[in-house]
């Protein structure tokens, strides 16, 4: 009796140990193939290439961490944002769209209203009289269904119901992030797609705030050097709504055809509220009076081309922006004022980041002379943008 009892005890112990080892192994298996439509939403999706690591949140399809290598090969996070244990700001409207995909219509719609096919639509005004970045609860505050496609690619999808923030039609929108490692550069390629059940304006944009010096400590981007391939820009009124004019950049502080430091002429940009750049730059092919001619399903008929390039002489990190969009919103972090504590508790100062949002022109739904942004049933919105990171050693 006694020996066989001992034997069965041993067998039981073995079974328990084996079960425990199995559980431990399970925990260690990559838990990446998560589909939030089928189960619990993942907190984060991580994709990586040799020289770049990207963390994406299902909330707002947000780029929460963007790690690139500086001129010495050291890793730096160059995207402003919040820590994973502090996600509330992304959802409750306190985040100024850090890293988020904004929609249904990025940027401003004057008087939060527009006419389409003879009908007037009223949107939620969330920026004075105007609608900004999709309204009070725009796409950046919704949880998207998230799917990791591979080690280097992830897709996030959102269904926006008919009447969402006042917009007509049910829209199914997605953004796919894909990393492509080159010999001396690494791309974050973004494909924004949308389809609709009724005509609606569409203007999706990635609103990442970059600081190419890294976001581990407070610093500004005034010494970053920027070049933008724009000969024209769209002047704005006191509510930051384009007046409808398309003006040459020549002789203005908006002329970045030759590279300049962001801070060099920034004091010349005065407007109500904090000064600085918050300007739609007109990209190639949309110059002057022909501006309205060239869009198809809200994007350019031209293939992806380089729109701008920024580098930080200190870190040696360079970011090129490529797109098939007609416009590029250049924002110099004017409203940052140290009141927001982001990752690691770092307080982001004024001009602590820049944004370069590829988009159609602001308020284009109310400006017939601008490239148009109405998507109709059967049409397919395919907006592309590339962040190309490279080391600049001068
Ligand atoms: C949003 O969340 C942050 C962080 O938890 C909190 O400090 C802030 O008060 C919240 N704001 C609103 C409007 O709920
Ligand atoms: C809203 O529009 C009214 C009427 O045009 C104007 O008087 C007011 O200043 C505007 N509000 C803001 C915040 O600009
Ligand atoms: C934009 O400017 C860069 C120089 O920074 C140039 O290499 C690129 O070809 C230009 N792109 C277009 C479309 O003009």
Automatic annotation (TrEMBL):
<protein>
    <recommendedName>
        <fullName>Aldose 1-epimerase</fullName>
        <ecNumber>5.1.3.3</ecNumber>
    </recommendedName>
</protein>
<dbReference type="InterPro" id="IPR008183">
    <property type="entry name" value="Aldose_1/G6P_1-epimerase"/>
</dbReference>
<keyword id="KW-0413">Isomerase</keyword>
<dbReference type="InterPro" id="IPR011013">
    <property type="entry name" value="Gal_mutarotase_sf_dom"/>
</dbReference>
<comment type="similarity">
    <text>Belongs to the aldose epimerase family.</text>
</comment>
<feature type="active site" description="Proton donor">
    <location>
        <position position="207"/>
    </location>
</feature>
<dbReference type="GO" id="GO:0006006">
    <property type="term" value="P:glucose metabolic process"/>
</dbReference>
<feature type="transmembrane region" description="Helical">
    <location>
        <begin position="12"/>
        <end position="29"/>
    </location>
</feature>
<feature type="binding site">
    <location>
        <begin position="207"/>
        <end position="209"/>
    </location>
    <ligand>
        <name>beta-D-galactose</name>
    </ligand>
</feature>
<feature type="binding site">
    <location>
        <position position="278"/>
    </location>
    <ligand>
        <name>beta-D-galactose</name>
    </ligand>
</feature>
<dbReference type="GO" id="GO:0030246">
    <property type="term" value="F:carbohydrate binding"/>
</dbReference>
<keyword id="KW-0472">Membrane</keyword>
<feature type="active site" description="Proton acceptor">
    <location>
        <position position="357"/>
    </location>
</feature>
<dbReference type="GO" id="GO:0004034">
    <property type="term" value="F:aldose 1-epimerase activity"/>
</dbReference>
<comment type="pathway">
    <text>Carbohydrate metabolism; hexose metabolism.</text>
</comment>
<keyword id="KW-0119">Carbohydrate metabolism</keyword>
<keyword id="KW-1133">Transmembrane helix</keyword>
<dbReference type="GO" id="GO:0033499">
    <property type="term" value="P:galactose catabolic process via UDP-galactose, Leloir pathway"/>
</dbReference>
<keyword id="KW-0812">Transmembrane</keyword>
<dbReference type="Pfam" id="PF01263">
    <property type="entry name" value="Aldose_epim"/>
</dbReference>
<dbReference type="InterPro" id="IPR015443">
    <property type="entry name" value="Aldose_1-epimerase"/>
</dbReference>
<feature type="binding site">
    <location>
        <begin position="107"/>
        <end position="108"/>
    </location>
    <ligand>
        <name>beta-D-galactose</name>
    </ligand>
</feature>
<dbReference type="InterPro" id="IPR047215">
    <property type="entry name" value="Galactose_mutarotase-like"/>
</dbReference>
<dbReference type="InterPro" id="IPR014718">
    <property type="entry name" value="GH-type_carb-bd"/>
</dbReference>
